[in-house]
Design goal:
With about 325 residues, this protein is mainly β. It is about 0% helix and about 55% strand.
């Protein structure tokens, strides 16, 4: 509908994610993504975009500082995936189709990630097919802690089919048949994006349960901005002590850090799932409530990235 007011002023951020936008040439591998002119830098990787007056289009990404793949793996969207369009009008209907596929040697992953498999693979193949329907279904005023904005709301329903296959001998084996992981197979997600002429990118993104859209899973909203970027810190010893795999208890020792640290867990889509603040010395994170699978962890010291990597939860 029109003239709706969405009041998000009571939202309190459980965590902050800092993303830095720079010219593509300032990324670590711009030549791998020809035709792009923007790179978004975050603690878990670099995403390369082509941006002009009409669209923001994702060409692909590389993993750094936390993504569980070697930087030599360069997943690309084919065709490139449209993430934002302009101009945007009430009742606009658009579709976006893309696929992501890449193969890499099993040696790129730590041995501990493959320890639970009955046979060790030679290579691993990841593929994902995405189909998205975007409908601008409402307009009105969005109230955030940072102010009020006139917005259009775009409803995005995404159908994805994700597969991970293992090359064992001469045959490709679907991982989900031998070692089920969350996130594999067919899935549908539903999210509402709030856009304004006053800001680049969405002011808020609300993820909901597809069958019951009034059930909110997660809300991301624009904060007040940041004045610094992550500066890496090099320590002589790793803070994550294991175990790998773990049934839920994750042990760290922040003694080598010069300041209290913050521990963060992310899923493979880069979404935060657990944040724990102000740790000194040895500490434990309780991840027993999270489903089994592969997860990303990050340790920060103020605004600086101290350590990142992957871990496995296994029951």
């Amino acid at each position: 509908g029109m003239g709706i007011t969405w009041d998000f002023t009571a939202l309190v951020a459980a965590n902050e994610v800092l993303t830095v936008a720079r010219p593509a040439a300032e990324g670590s591998k711009p030549a791998s993504f020809p035709g792009t002119n923007l790179v978004l830098l975050s603690g878990v990787g670099e995403a390369y975009y082509a941006v002009d007056a009409n669209a923001l289009v994702n060409h692909g990404f590389i993993g750094t500082g936390g993504f569980p793949l070697s930087e030599s793996v360069e997943p690309k969207y084919l065709p490139p995936l449209v993430e934002q369009r302009a101009p945007l009008s009430f009742f606009d209907v658009n579709t976006a189709e893309s696929a992501l596929a890449f193969t890499f040697p099993a040696s790129f992953l730590p041995d501990t990630l493959l320890a639970g498999l009955p046979l060790q693979p030679d290579s691993i193949r990841f593929s994902q097919i995405l189909s998205r329907l975007d409908v601008v279904d409402a307009s009105g005023t969005l109230k955030l802690p940072t102010g009020d904005y006139e917005v259009l709301r775009e409803r995005r329903r995404t159908i994805s089919d994700t597969k991970v296959e293992l090359l064992i001998g001469l045959f490709w084996i679907d991982l989900s048949t031998v070692f089920p992981l969350p996130g594999l197979g067919a899935d549908t997600t539903l999210a509402y994006y709030f856009f304004s002429n006053e800001a680049k990118g969405p002011l808020a993104v609300v993820d909901v349960v597809p069958d019951t859209p009034t059930t909110v899973l997660n809300v991301q909203f624009r904060g007040t901005g940041a004045t610094s970027t992550h500066q890496p810190v090099v320590l002589e010893t790793r803070l994550f002590k294991g175990p790998v795999p773990s049934a839920g208890d994750l042990y760290f020792d922040a003694t080598p850090a010069s300041r209290p640290v913050r521990a963060e867990l992310y899923n493979l889509a880069g979404q935060p799932v657990l944040i724990s603040e102000r740790h000194t010395g040895a500490f434990r994170l309780d991840a027993a409530s999270l489903p089994p699978g592969l997860w990303i962890y990050r340790i920060t010291d103020g605004e600086r990235l101290v350590e990142s990597g992957t871990l496995i939860l296994q029951r």
